[in-house]
Amino acid sequence: MTNDLAKDKLSDLLETLSQRQFTGKLEVQALPVTWNLYFCLGRLVWIGGGAHGIRRWYRLLSQYCPQIPPKSIRPRLVDDSHSWKYQALTILVKQQKIQHEQAVGVIKSTIAEVLFDILQQEEKAPLTFICNFSDEQTVLDTSLIPIHPIQALSEAQQAWKTWRNAGLASVSPNMGAVIKQPEQLQQLASPQVYQTLVKLIDGKRSLRDVAVKVKQDELVLVRSLIPYIRKKVIVLTNIPDFRPPTTNATTSPKANHSTPEVYASNLEEHQAVAAEAFSSPVAACHSQLPITKPKIVRPLVAHVEDSLQERQLMQEILTGASYGFASIEDSMQALPLLLEHKPDLIFLDLVMPVANGYEICAQIRRISIFKDTPVIILTGNDGIVDRVRAKMVGATDFLAKPISEQKVLAALQKHLNLESLPPDAALANLSFQTST
């Protein structure tokens, strides 16, 4: 039984399906792309399809389950074309080939990526929804982790909002990148960064693929490439999905139902073979992590503020948008710490003990490396006299308190010119793995 819901929005529809404890498959269409959302009693079990269904599967399986060569997993004759990956995870857990937490990591990341893609597409054009109520083919085993669809959508909406606020609404993380002007790139980048980019930016990996390869957030990665993209040294392009694996036809359909080993029938012979496109183990698969020195994330934003509550709020806003954050409480230590971290933008509270914002701003402008760094004064008294005085000491702008996510991100977009950052500085915090 099907039901065409062409005029609904995704958020409204997921709320309805959750409340009605829907069991079955929801098809989301933005032709020629279709996504398939699988539900059981109103909970989201799995999402398949999309432009990069196989590429996503290989990447996330390699990321969360590095002991499993992705190409060793093949669908059975009886499997649904989009849900066989979930069924494979279920069987691999039962066979103790992977841990339950590893399967959960694949599922959560799959759902997060696909919902993000759907939200990005929904902003471009209306979507068509078709509900297929439960039948033998669409009901999945829910033993791994049934997820509340509204919670998953809320997290995806926040990720999409952050991406869009960064000015990347037209950029899909499924796009690939190609170096168009290698000579100019060699002039702009250090030899190490140039070699890294040449190995990674080959037009064969999506931005998501590269982000996993360098163990970095997708937004931070794309921001680091923006200076090169704006100079047309690197261009973004659409890339195809991988070819789907062939069906494992070594057993009959009846045997497939009772023989879970069919999923891993080639596993032992492939154990020593690394995945071709992705070979990055993920920390989430390990209970103990090595302690490493935190890396400075660029663009780095400093916040000089004596109020703990204000600093915490600013940190939440900035880190949530994938900006680096340097918090400075003591106004007397502001200059030494600013010199140490060399932020790309500075938020400066006006009223502080010992030294106020005007005095610190004037001192900042006397330092040559900060002569072009945006300095934004934060104040609860946004009057004309204060604005004039701020300009006299070299402040770039004023921001009225109380601060909010909308105000802060708008100020960053206005004043933080990513193209002006040193190219290597934007890439310095990435942990590249250039082995193939």
What does this 3D model show about the protein?
The model is unreliable at 250-295 and 429-436 (pLDDT under 50). α15 links the parallel β12 and β13 (397-400). 39% of the residues are buried. The longest helix has 25 residues, at 100-124. It is globular and about 75 Å long. The protein is built from 17 helices and 13 strands. α2 (53-64) packs antiparallel against α4 and α4 crosses α5 (149-165). The strands form three sheets. Strands 1-5-2-3-4 form a five-stranded antiparallel sheet, covered by helices on one side. Strands 10-9-11-12-13 form a five-stranded parallel sheet, with helices on both faces. Strands 7-6-8 form a three-stranded antiparallel sheet. With 436 residues, the protein is an alpha/beta fold.
Detail the topology: elements first, then pairings:
Blueprint: E1 2-4, H1 10-19, E2 24-30, E3 33-40, E4 43-49, H2 53-64, H3 84-94, H4 100-124, E5 128-133, H5 149-165, E6 176-179, H6 182-188, H7 191-200, E7 202-206, H8 207-213, H9 218-230, E8 234-237, H10 253-258, H11 267-270, E9 300-304, H12 308-320, E10 324-328, H13 334-341, E11 345-349, H14 357-365, E12 375-379, H15 384-392, E13 397-400, H16 405-415, H17 423-427
Parallel strand pairs: 9-10, 9-11, 11-12, 12-13
Antiparallel strand pairs: 1-5, 2-3, 2-5, 3-4, 6-7, 6-8
Helix pairs in contact: 2-4, 4-5
